[in-house]
Amino acid sequence: MASQAAGKNIGYVLVDGTEGTFRGAVLVTDFRGIPADFRYTDPITPSKIEKILYGNALDVYIKEELILESLVGAVEVTPVLWVCREGDLLDPLAKLAKSKTILLAPTARSPLDATGDIEKQNDPGSYIVQADGVSAPLRFSLPGEKNREEDARSAASILVEAAATMDLLEPFSRMGKAMSALGEEKSGS
Amino acid sequence: MDLDRLRENIARLFLGRVSVRSWRPGVSVPETRSLKRKAAVRPLRPPRRALGTVLYGAAMSTKIKGGPLPLHETTQRARPGKITLSVLPPAVFGWKREETAGKAPGKVEILRPAAARKGLYFAAGLPQERENRLLFARGKIPSREGEIPLAFFFPVIRDGVAKSILNKEKGTLLLWYNAYSRAFSSRGLLLVRQLRQGGGLEWRWTEIQKHS
């Protein structure tokens, strides 16, 4: 497994729009969670008049076209799997990315029988997977409306392989810390 | 002096000193004001002019002026220099990048895609955090007599760890990996309390048993 996992990467995407300021980051790690590429954007703060004029379309435009497109386009290390945790980013990320894309989230469910087991959920394109033997199963969703079980199994096998050597959700918290640290650095300068 | 003469003298004395004023009953007419207000209608949109069909004939295409939407194509085409009637230098307002706000007053950037900066060196310095998975690991990790397991962290690349710190407040393990390590084999790291006299905390590498 070690030799197979080497050279494979997972790309994590985070776009934050809280408190009226938008910023985003992409962290590509190997299957051990060690960073291979990290990109982040400067914060974008739309003015009050822009918020009024463009309403809800403004969030979508800033998140998808200004931030996501720039981040994904700038990444030099191509991951085998793109992972996001916001539902509204899944489809746009899938359009931009050249690899498989999923939405990944924790669950509070009791573990499934064996590592690698997957279970289809009521939401279309949504599954839970037992990625390793010592954690709660993870929920993942596939983009688009036409979801095939084959795609789900393919994504699950990547998750299981990576979960043997890394914590699959941990990079998100690292990215959050990195973004807030960079924000503090900028405001302090 | 007879009475007629006396009357004549008095009349001469008071001639022109008595004025006669007229008086009409009633007070002045009060001024009437209306409570109605006139609403002034002002357009919120910038004026749009359609030129062509009347002035230039039906064959001319209609030109409509208005505000551009913030799309790449339209914002790039906005040319502030063409406005000639403005007293102040005309400016195109768009999204303001926070880093330029306040530093260059009056200079506002046109909305462009956010530049993605490189930060690999910065990200590589951040530790990975492992949560305690003891709850899920019970029965799957070997236990010994005379000790109580306190925490189990998984997965950890044993040969790749450069530094590790236990965050006692959160009960998590912070891991710094050597980025140049080629090790990919992971194990679990178990923290136990020894019950024997004088025994304290002990860290131990352990495997997960596949079948409990």
Helical segment tally of chain B? 4
* Head-to-tail CA distance between termini of chain B: 156 Å
Q: Which sequence of strands runs across the widest sheet of chain A?
A: 3-2-1-5-6-9-8-7
Assembly classification: heterodimer
Low-confidence stretches of chain A: none
Structural class call of chain B reads alpha+beta
Overall average residue pLDDT of chain B:
70
Please name the CATH architecture of chain A. 2-Layer Sandwich
Name of the CATH first level of chain A: Alpha Beta
What value does the average pLDDT of chain A take? 91
CATH homologous group name of chain A = archaeoglobus fulgidus dsm 4304 superfamily
Helix content bin of chain A:
25-40%
| Radius of gyration of chain B (Å) | 48 Å
Give the CA-CA distance, first to last residue of chain A: 46 Å
Secondary structure category of chain A: alpha+beta
Tell me about the biggest sheet of chain B?
3 strands, antiparallel
How many beta-strand segments of chain A?
A: 9
Morphology call of chain B = rod-shaped
Topology order of chain A in helix (H) and strand (E) letters: HEEEEHHEHEEEEHH
Name the chain pair whose interface involves the most residues: A-B, 59 and 46 residues
Write the CATH fold name of chain A. Answer: archaeoglobus fulgidus dsm 4304 fold
Structural account:
The complex is a heterodimer of chains A (189) and B (212). Chain A has 189 residues and is of the alpha+beta class. Chain A has a single domain, classed as archaeoglobus fulgidus dsm 4304 fold. Chain A has six helices and nine strands; from the N terminus they run αββββααβαββββαα. Chain A has an eight-stranded mixed sheet with strand order 3-2-1-5-6-9-8-7, sandwiched between helices. In chain A, a hairpin with an 8-residue loop joins β8 and β9. The longest helix of chain A is centred in the middle third of the chain and has 19 residues, at 56-74. The model of chain A has no long low-confidence stretch (mean pLDDT 91). Chain B has 212 residues and is an alpha+beta fold. Chain B has a domain at 129-206. Helix content of chain B is 12%, strand content 24%. Chain B has four helices and ten strands. Chain B has helices at 3-13, 72-77, 120-124, 134-137, and strands at residues 50-51, 63-64, 96-97, 116-118, 128-130, 147-157, 161-167, 172-177, 186-194, 201-206. In chain B, β9 and β10 (201-206) form a beta hairpin. The longest helix of chain B has 11 residues, at 3-13. The radius of gyration of chain B is 48 Å and the shape is rod-shaped. Mean pLDDT of chain B is 70; it is low at 47-69 and 80-110. At the A-B interface, α1, β2, β3, β4 and α3 of A face β3, β4, α3, β5 and β6 of B. β4 of chain A pairs antiparallel with β3 of chain B.
